[in-house]
Design goal:
With 355 residues, this protein is mainly beta. The chain has 2 domains: 154 residues, Jelly Rolls; 185 residues, Jelly Rolls (Sandwich), CATH 2.60.120. The strands form 5 sheets. Strands 2, 3, 4, 5, 6, 8, 11 and 13 form an 8-stranded mixed sheet that branches. A hairpin with a 4-residue loop joins strand 19 and strand 20. The longest helix is centred in the N-terminal third of the chain and has 4 residues. 30% of the residues are buried.
Length: 355
């Protein structure tokens, strides 16, 4: 039986950095910063003055911010309160090779449409990502003008992914803003209210930084070397498994060779299922016949130097008199020094006549 055709390793002398992880956003699976907005005292929101809900004077075209409650309150003219995050500063300690993927948010609003004399009016939000020259890269709007929260605050939260991930060199700021006004036109601050709880960045690691074999456009891809087939094709007639020690295979690669993954492949044939008697009567006749289906099973695997599994993929083929060819590639999430790897192997079993 000759199931297997080839297996090979990719290698080059390239070292890649790992990114520092803070927390994981459970919705997207991306890494996340903590809250990056200033939600404390003073006037962290542009376009606001210190104030509180109610009153009989003030307002106009400027919203109020209450540092004791963290609430933004709108008055009788439309006003906008905003706050920006410097992205490169926020992700300065996240490591190298970072791709900005989106943001997550949580804020509370109060817009009492039940009460004609209560705090009610138009209320919208916006989160915009801008580039180094102030160009808008992505922008997302939130409209709560028709959202009726009654006399209580209602929480709105979620995760928003950008149209595509951005390298940090192409982004500058993330700005969150809220605009609104009191539709009753009362003096003071009687309009809708906003209380922001969180705005954090979602990011991931550029796969090229951890493994230059990830795609042809990765820096260092052109320096990658692929070995020739490392399996001995002559032994498959007597063996159904071959394992290659990585360090042995790369003896001539030099000190500190980095392994990025391996190519592997095989051809297979599923033969014919067979039937046979498994139980006989006293007179010698068959009382039970069982059919054994034809099949081929193949496993490709890779271990580290401590014999822990780094990769395993199982292939199962059925269907009498079928054949096929498999060629696949496994890339390590992070390229590893050859000394950190153990063995790569292909193994197979077959059932059926001619498998």
């Amino acid at each position: 039986m000759k199931l297997f055709r080839s297996i090979g390793f990719l290698l080059c002398l390239v070292v890649s950095a790992l990114a520092f992880s803070q927390t994981i956003d459970t919705t997207t699976g991306l890494q996340s910063t903590g809250n990056l907005l200033n939600l404390g005292g003073g006037l962290p929101w542009s376009g606001t003055v210190t104030g509180q809900a109610g009153g009989v004077s003030g307002g106009g075209s400027v919203a109020a911010y209450n540092p004791n409650t963290g609430n933004i309150i709108f008055s009788y003219f439309n006003a906008t309160a905003s706050q920006s995050i410097a992205i490169n500063q926020a992700l300065a300690n996240a490591g190298t090779g970072i791709l900005l993927a989106g943001y997550r948010y949580s804020w509370e609003i109060q817009n009492d449409l039940n009460n004609g004399g209560g705090n009610r009016g138009t209320l919208t939000g916006n989160v915009s990502l801008t580039g180094p020259v102030g160009n808008v890269l992505d922008s997302y709007n939130y409209n709560y003008s028709q959202t009726n929260t009654g006399g209580n605050f209602q929480t709105f939260s979620g995760s928003q992914l950008f149209s595509n991930p951005y390298q940090l060199s192409s982004v500058d700021k993330l700005t969150v803003s809220f605009s609104g006004h009191d539709q009753n036109w009362w003096a003071g601050y009687w309009g809708p209210r906003v209380h922001v709880d969180n705005l954090s960045l979602l990011y991931t690691v550029d796969p090229c930084k951890n493994n230059p074999a990830f795609m042809p456009t990765c820096s260092g891809f052109s320096d990658i070397t692929t070995t020739s087939n490392l399996l001995n094709s002559s032994v498959w007639e007597t063996a159904q498994r071959q394992a290659i020690g990585i360090n042995t295979a790369l003896t001539n690669a030099g000190i500190g060779a980095m392994v990025h993954g391996f190519n592997y492949g095989f051809n297979y044939t599923v033969g014919q299922s067979s039937s046979g008697c498994t139980a006989w009567n006293q007179d010698g006749s068959c009382s039970w016949t069982m059919t054994t289906p034809a099949s081929v099973k193949v496993t490709a695997s890779l271990t580290d130097s401590n014999d822990h599994s780094l990769f395993q993929k199982n292939f199962n083929f059925t269907g009498d008199n079928t054949t096929g060819v498999i060629n696949e590639k496994f890339l390590l999430p992070t390229s590893l020094n050859q000394s950190m790897l153990g063995t790569a192997s292909l193994s197979g079993t077959s059932m059926g006549v001619g498998s």
